[in-house]
Specification:
Layout (H helix, E strand, L loop, with lengths): L10 H4 L12 H14 L7 H8 L5 H7 L2 H13 L10 H18 L2 H8 L5 H14 L6 H32 L4 H18 L3 H7 L11 H18 L1
Length: about 240
Amino acid sequence: MNAAKPPGGLVWFDEPPPPPATEQLSRERVVAAAIALADESSSGEITMRAIANRLGSRSPMALYRYVGSKDGLTDLMVDEIYGEITVPPPGDWRACLREMGLSAWAAVQRHPWFARLAFSRPPLGPNALRLYDSAFAAVEELGLPAAARVGFINTVLGQVFGSGLALLEELAMRQRTGLTSDAELAEAAQPYLERIAADGEYPHYIRWLNEPDPMAEVVTFEQQLEWQLDGLQRLAEAR
């Protein structure tokens, strides 16, 4: 007797192939509809019923024949976005990781939910494996041990996903509070900032806040990525 399959198994492991596409449903259509709905939501949250409605299906249960489970759908959605990330051919490891970081950040800005779901499932789909294979090829020239090679790659991707989680939470907060612009947020916070300035408990923070236009030169993702690459280059040269 075969052992029961554990819940939450990756769709890549042993799920049967999806049934043939119909005029209404296919694996590709289900995944595309799920991504479109997640993109429209500030939180990235979606339901199988909403996907079914988008596709004109009478039953959400019909979707499971194409994706296996909600976890299977997550695997497919995440891997679809991994396919939007590019790594140039090997030759200059720093340029390769920079392009990977920038294209991943562009993908996260298009699909902020990706940063959250990417942490929830192992990156074992074909697009994710292709990305990591290309990234490993890029750092091969450094002659680093295995742990250091994956550390270089995950340092860049960690910066992407950390920034993406911050973006996702900010978008959800803005919709929840109705404070959609930076000016509205600043205006709402002003009475509290004036109170803590008067208390004098956080002098260094208040001194920064009182400098002329303290947010005039916000550190961009691109600048943060260069700092990360500077550190990785020093490590590579030291080895």
